[in-house]
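Async update (no meeting this week)

Hi team, since we skipped the sync, here's where things stand on the single-chain job. The sequence we agreed to prioritize is pasted below, unchanged from the tracker. I ran it this morning and attached the output directly underneath so nobody has to dig for it. Comments welcome in thread, and please keep replies under the output.
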Amino acid sequence: MSSRIGFTLLELMISIALIGLIVLIVAGAMRLGYRSVDAGERKIESLERMRASLTLIDSQIQSAIPLTIDEDGSRKYYFKGEKGTLLFPSNHSLWGGQMGYVVVTYSVVPDARGKQTLWISESIIGAENKIEAKLFESLDEISFQYFYKGPTDEQGSWVEQWTDDTDIPEKVRVRLVQGPSELSLVIPMRARGYLAKLPSATVPQIQGK
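Output:
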């Protein structure tokens, strides 16, 4: 009997099916790898942006100037602190680094999805023009708190609104919440006392974005 060399149609179909399955598995693994790399890069970029933003906030608050204004016949500190808004003069600018005095405003703005975004705006003292940028976005909660300690208090406490026009807080706390994760950054306000006086007519007002 003569020997028959070659593949039958069934064997050929099985071979093609196995090759196709192997190609699908390899392609799926490569696609998963690309997605993992892309997700990792986005995570690194997000963490780097958060680190840079927190460094900026820390530098600006620590470089705050205890500026005073004359208003209604009395001298007051030029400082406004609320849960979603913080305004103060600083000698550290996002766009100019250590270049002159600027009025810094942080504003928490909700979006259509119920998430919160933190905006920063800066203006030169006495000027109307201002520049803005986005620091954080799509967080569940962004808030500010202020450490208050009265002259006769043994221990201070954190408040969500600063109402003392004759003093500025010792510390400011920035709170960021995303899902189960929460980050709190406590920043001391190092400069205390009177440094300069600004006419009340040139004082910019707090404005939300």
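Quick observations from my side:
The two ends are 92 Å apart (CA to CA).
Residues 9-62 form the longest helix (54 residues).
Reply here if anything looks off.
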